[in-house]
């Protein structure tokens, strides 16, 4: 009994340290959105240039995630976490004291290098330290962090910008990162197993060019157009590099990223569902504020407050859906959640110039409630199907696919929104622009129906089958 109690306390300590680190990393990503206009005026930047402060973070994050499986198998949990958090903290300091845009970009790149390791590491550790029947509740805590940080970020940065210089945004999160590093140094235990795979530098280069090229291409398309030379070249380089990267992984004895995880049917289905849900989440959080601010003349604060109730609801629900998952599995949670998500997405296809703030907030909140039943349960169901040795690769693959889906999906939805406007020449006409928003949500609704159909193929109570086989 004493050993179990000690082990339980040890697990709780690990959970608290990893959650705090991931929370700071995700919060940092959402803080900047409100502050960009102020940074633009302070550093004399154009909108396109300033946008790179968020784009570069996502790009480097996306490049780092595929490499995390290799890092997790090479370094101990403690060393990797402390190194990742230290890199993040150094980047945060550089951002806080940056005298110009170039130094600020360097800081963001360093921040993202550390942050990109955090989420896959946390998910891998949770799946190792918790037994199958408790993984849903554990991953519900991950969902709590992923939801709460974006809910708090815009409001916190809005308050800081209103009362203090924008640099204080970085100094607010720095103490949390430092405290987490110090605590981790003294109490964090090693739980991941080192297999010391060989370093295949060609794979790392191909992975960086592949995922980086695709993410850069799709994220740039919104600004420069799909036909621009930088977008076309980026997508071609990304596609070719990624093809060679995947082919190379099948030939290596110890691949950087194990694509054989897709041989597990449930993992493949749940990963596709997760990608579509993430497109729906990031896409709507991008399009709705544009619609509210540019077409209905709402303030940035009002569009931020519209997102908050739904994000908080999703955060509160994540641990609850995690516990439900442990009892009934992911199938019915996913079917229910995706049904709610599909209906509420359709409710955004009839927006007008007179749509009320209450309507948008309530529908968005119900939509996020539906998403909370899907996001972590389907992820956990897919990862539960993998053997322990493949879990680092499964978490890295899952996060990579979501990052790529969010980037590509958002770029496509924004392009549909602008090109589907009834009279694109008349940008000043709100009605024609709102038609584009409605068409974008019709496409999102069709994607949601696809994910709903896929959810029927998730095996019920998959973890109990595996548990039985293992006993």
UniProtKB/TrEMBL annotation:
Per UniProt, the keywords (alphabetical) are: Cell membrane, Membrane, Transmembrane, Transmembrane helix, Transport
Please give the chief subcellular localization of this protein: membrane
User: Where does the UniProt annotation locate this protein?
Assistant: Cell membrane
GO molecular-function terms, A-Z: transmembrane transporter activity
Q: Which CDD domains match?
A: MFS_LmrB_MDR_like (cd17503)
Q: Which residues cross the membrane?
A: 12-40, 52-72, 79-103, 109-130, 142-162, 168-188, 200-219, 225-247, 267-292, 304-325, 332-351, 357-383, 404-422, 434-458
- Topology class, membrane: Multi-pass membrane protein
Q: Which SUPFAM superfamilies match?
A: MFS general substrate transporter
GO CC terms of this entry: plasma membrane
Question: What name is this protein filed under?
Answer: DHA2 family efflux MFS transporter permease subunit
Source organism (scientific name): Terrihalobacillus insolitus
